[in-house]
């Protein structure tokens, strides 16, 4: 008579069998998509839709790869087919990441590698999440997703039984690595929820290959135990901030001086080497999930050498924040003052509209004409306030529809001074005295009326061309030529600066810093980039100013908070659009960003001169920190979904067809069905050390009967009769199952009973009736 092991000789269907392929693909897709979405949080505004699309492409390709195992025996043709499936899947994944299709052609691979290398260079100076706007840097951040997912899918679904368990362990580890990388460096606000979802998806991926219901029941019990334990300790294990803590010196906007144990900022743009101290002490703690550029003030006057804040900057609350858009683009934040010593108060992004002080902030701050909120004295450390900020982020189409005219009161934002004959930035500036001085009418130039440009007046154009800023004036006119809107001019200048100049904190001071930045040094930090863009916009008759404040980059000690340091000081450009307000542009590339490659410069020039532009270069549009909500950045997603819908749908359809054909063929093939109760019994005997060589079901039945365990013997008898077809419908009793568990216990102690309970759980826990 055969042994219990021989009784189970009917080959169990492997997890790769066709009838389970659909469920296994579904489980893989769920885990891969969840891990990819969490990894995408390494970008300040996570492109979760693209992450899910990449997971769908990889899953479809894995389905075809698994189905290829039923086409025929392994050979050169099958190997070529599988290679084609993998290459096509990876190409579809790159398209899902918004890589232009023409760069996937073999003759364009060199350009693709250069673009990705440039993107990698740009992210080298950032803490996570990446808050820059360079599209190739974002692609470089997301590139590990298709690579790791495809490697995991190949390991999981490769049509071979060789090293199957090891390959599945590798695949699971790779998916968990993707998840952990995103979660550790951009913590979720509800980590316990992420952990529970992850555990459920992992359990589904591991349980679906199981064949016996008893195995499923035991696995679910262990999952529940592990989940309870994980929830209990998750708070202790969760880090307060990103695990990877690396940062190059960031762009800064002002000189500073220590006073009273804190740091006070001089926001005027003095250029030359960066002078901001590298203190890591917090200046502010901001409670906001995704803050933008934290504005403190603005610089409205260009004195011929530098941008500074005048004594009476122009502004109107009604024009800066139109009532029709106020609710749509208002953000809320709570700010706690730490080391910053300044009467100006930081917003949560944009112009502060309402400030509600908490303790230690009296009297109520006043709002100045340019949107700066300030107190009469320096706010003390520990003071807290709630701020509502108006931060418009229109789509590209909405910004283009804005009128090119603007209120005459804002004409000073389109004017600038030419330098006096003896002026030099190498000489120390008396900023306080200059702020109080009236504008010199003889050197003040700009458009004669809103909607016009300085070039429209021959006398004004001649004055500018004869000044040290003549070359910059020619460049500004060239960049703005043919543009149909102020937005297009701003976007062209921003793209030109980000694509053709390098980031450097150690540029030497010159007599005319902005002119030297554009035409000789070709490097600088946020002061040079923002100053050059704002001045060129004014040369094209567009109202612009410098926004100064902080660019958040480090998460705070509590969930949903950001810690602002002195090194986060930053300057950007604010452009006025009628009916919208001041919209932020940031022309400064990330730290360590290299000068663009030759073909990038050519594409940038093509965009500037109206010849055409690539999707990735058009994407660098209106932005604040992290590009949150700017419609122009997402302009290409619609066509991408449309283009990918057909091939992805085709892959899924082919996979479903292969699965259906394989299932039909497998159903026709004669095979012996495995008895779940027999499989459960054999595994229980093995786990409890009772699987003696040659032991048969009949022998086990007699042994139990001799011991007086008649109910247990009846339970084994039912299994034996059903196995050999004597009574196929009969099942063992619950009492027999319980007595068998007690009889198989290796000892009569508690430990032995627990082991027996785990090996042969109650029927309800094992999923059996």
Protein architecture, described:
This protein has 769 residues and is α+β, with helices and mostly antiparallel strands. The chain folds into 3 domains: 11-187 and 239-243 and 636-664, no CATH class; 264-589 and 600-634, no CATH class; 676-766, no CATH class. Strands 8-11-7-3-18-17 form a 6-stranded antiparallel beta sheet, with no helix packed on it. Strands 4-16-19-20 form a 4-stranded antiparallel beta sheet. The protein has a two-stranded antiparallel ribbon with strand order 1-2. Strand 17 and strand 18 (561-565) form a beta hairpin. The radius of gyration is 34 Å and the shape is elongated.
Structural class: alpha+beta
Spatial sequence of strands, sheet with the most strands: 8-11-7-3-18-17
With helices defined by DSSP (H or I, 4 residues minimum), what is the helix count? 28
Strand tally, please? 20
Keywords:
769 residues, alpha+beta, 3 domains, 4-stranded antiparallel β-sheet, 28 helices, 11% strand
Structure at a glance:
By secondary structure, the protein is an alpha+beta fold.
Secondary-structure map with pairings?
Blueprint: H1 4-7, H2 18-39, H3 48-67, H4 76-96, H5 109-123, H6 135-142, H7 144-157, H8 164-185, H9 191-207, H10 213-237, E1 255-259, E2 262-266, E3 282-287, E4 294-299, E5 301-302, E6 307-308, H11 317-320, H12 323-326, E7 330-337, E8 351-357, E9 366-367, E10 373-374, E11 384-390, H13 396-401, E12 416-417, H14 431-436, E13 444-445, H15 458-466, H16 470-480, H17 486-500, E14 502-503, H18 513-521, E15 523-524, H19 526-539, E16 544-550, E17 554-555, E18 561-565, E19 569-577, E20 581-585, H20 598-608, H21 615-618, H22 637-668, H23 676-687, H24 697-707, H25 710-723, H26 734-744, H27 750-759, H28 763-766
Parallel strand pairs: 14-15
Antiparallel strand pairs: 1-2, 3-7, 3-18, 4-16, 5-6, 7-11, 8-11, 9-10, 12-13, 16-19, 17-18, 19-20
Helix pairs in contact: 2-3, 2-8, 2-9, 2-22, 3-4, 3-7, 3-22, 5-6, 7-8, 9-10, 17-19, 17-20, 18-19, 24-25, 25-26
């Amino acid at each position: 008579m055969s042994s219990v092991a021989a009784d189970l000789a009917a080959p169990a269907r492997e997890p790769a069998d066709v009838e389970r392929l659909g469920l296994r693909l579904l489980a893989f897709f769920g885990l891969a998509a969840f891990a990819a979405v969490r990894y995408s949080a390494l970008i300040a505004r996570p492109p979760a839709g693209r992450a899910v699309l990449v997971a769908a492409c990889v899953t479809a390709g894995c389905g075809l790869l698994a189905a290829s195992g039923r086409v025929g025996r392994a050979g050169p043709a099958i190997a070529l087919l599988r290679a084609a499936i993998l290459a096509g899947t990876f190409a579809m994944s790159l398209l899902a990441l918004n890589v232009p299709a023409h760069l996937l052609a073999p003759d364009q691979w060199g350009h693709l590698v250069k673009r990705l290398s440039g993107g990698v260079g740009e992210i080298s100076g950032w803490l996570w999440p990446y808050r820059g706007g360079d599209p190739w840097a974002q692609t470089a951040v997301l590139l590990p997703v298709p690579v790791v997912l495809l490697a995991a899918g190949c390991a999981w679904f490769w049509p071979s039984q060789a090293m199957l368990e090891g390959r599945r362990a590798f695949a699971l580890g790779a998916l968990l690595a993707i998840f952990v990388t995103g979660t550790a460096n951009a913590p979720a606000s509800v980590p316990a929820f992420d952990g529970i979802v992850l555990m459920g998806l992992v359990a589904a991926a591991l349980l679906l290959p199981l064949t016996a219901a008893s195995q499923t029941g035991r696995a679910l019990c262990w999952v529940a135990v592990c989940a309870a334990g994980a929830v209990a300790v998750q708070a202790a294990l969760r880090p307060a901030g990103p695990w990877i803590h690396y940062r190059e010196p960031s762009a800064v906007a002002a000189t500073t001086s220590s006073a009273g144990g804190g740091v006070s900022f001089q926001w005027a743009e003095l250029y030359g080497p960066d002078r901001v101290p590298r203190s890591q002490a917090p200046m502010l703690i901001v409670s906001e999930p995704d803050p933008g550029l934290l504005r403190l003030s603005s610089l409205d006057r260009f004195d011929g050498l530098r941008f500074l804040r005048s004594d009476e900057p122009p502004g109107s609350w009604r024009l800066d924040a139109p009532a029709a858009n106020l609710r749509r683009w208002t953000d809320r934040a709570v700010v706690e003052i730490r080391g910053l010593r300044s009467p100006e108060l930081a917003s949560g992004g944009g112009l502060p509209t309402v400030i509600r002080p908490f303790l230690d902030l009296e009297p109520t701050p006043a709002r100045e004409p340019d949107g700066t909120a300030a107190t009469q004295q320096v706010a003390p450390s520990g003071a807290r306030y709630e701020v509502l900020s108006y931060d418009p982020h229109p789509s590209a189409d909405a910004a283009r529809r804005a009128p090119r005219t603007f209120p005459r009161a804002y004409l000073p934002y389109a004017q600038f001074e030419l330098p006096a004959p003896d002026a030099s930035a190498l000489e120390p500036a008396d900023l306080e005295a200059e702020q109080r001085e009236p504008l010199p009418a003889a050197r003040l130039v700009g458009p004669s009326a809103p909607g016009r440009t300085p070039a429209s007046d021959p006398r004004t154009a001649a004055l500018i061309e004869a000044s040290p800023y003549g070359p910059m004036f020619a460049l500004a006119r060239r960049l703005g030529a043919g543009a149909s809107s102020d937005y297009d001019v701003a976007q062209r200048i921003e793209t030109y600066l980000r694509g053709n100049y390098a980031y450097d904190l150690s540029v030497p001071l010159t007599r005319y810093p902005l002119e030297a930045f554009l035409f000789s040094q070709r490097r600088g930090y946020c002061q040079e980039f923002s100053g050059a863009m704002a001045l060129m916009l004014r040369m094209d008759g567009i109202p612009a100013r410098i926004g100064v404040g902080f660019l958040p980059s480090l998460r705070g000690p509590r969930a949903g908070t950001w810690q602002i340091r002195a090194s986060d000081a930053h300057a950007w450009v604010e452009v006025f659009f009628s009916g919208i307000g001041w919209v932020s542009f940031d022309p400064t590339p990330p730290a360590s960003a290299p000068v663009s490659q030759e073909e990038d410069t050519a594409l940038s020039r093509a965009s500037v001169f109206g010849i055409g532009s690539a999707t990735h270069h058009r994407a660098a549009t209106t932005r604040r920190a992290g590009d949150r909500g700017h419609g122009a950045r997402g302009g290409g997603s619609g066509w991408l979904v449309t283009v990918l819908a057909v091939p992805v749908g085709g892959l899924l359809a082919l996979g479903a067809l292969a699965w259906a054909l394989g299932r039909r063929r497998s159903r026709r093939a004669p095979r012996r069905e495995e008895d779940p109760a027999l499989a459960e019994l054999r595994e229980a005997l093995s786990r409890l050390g009772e699987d003696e060589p040659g032991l048969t079901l009949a022998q086990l039945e007699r042994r139990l009967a001799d011991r007086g365990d008649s109910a247990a013997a009846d339970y084994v008898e039912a299994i034996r009769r059903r196995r050999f077809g004597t009574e196929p419908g009969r099942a063992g009793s619950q009492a027999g199952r319980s007595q068998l568990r007690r009889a198989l216990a290796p000892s009569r102690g508690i430990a032995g009973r627990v082991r027996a309970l785990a090996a042969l759980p109650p029927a309800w826990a094992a999923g059996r009736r």
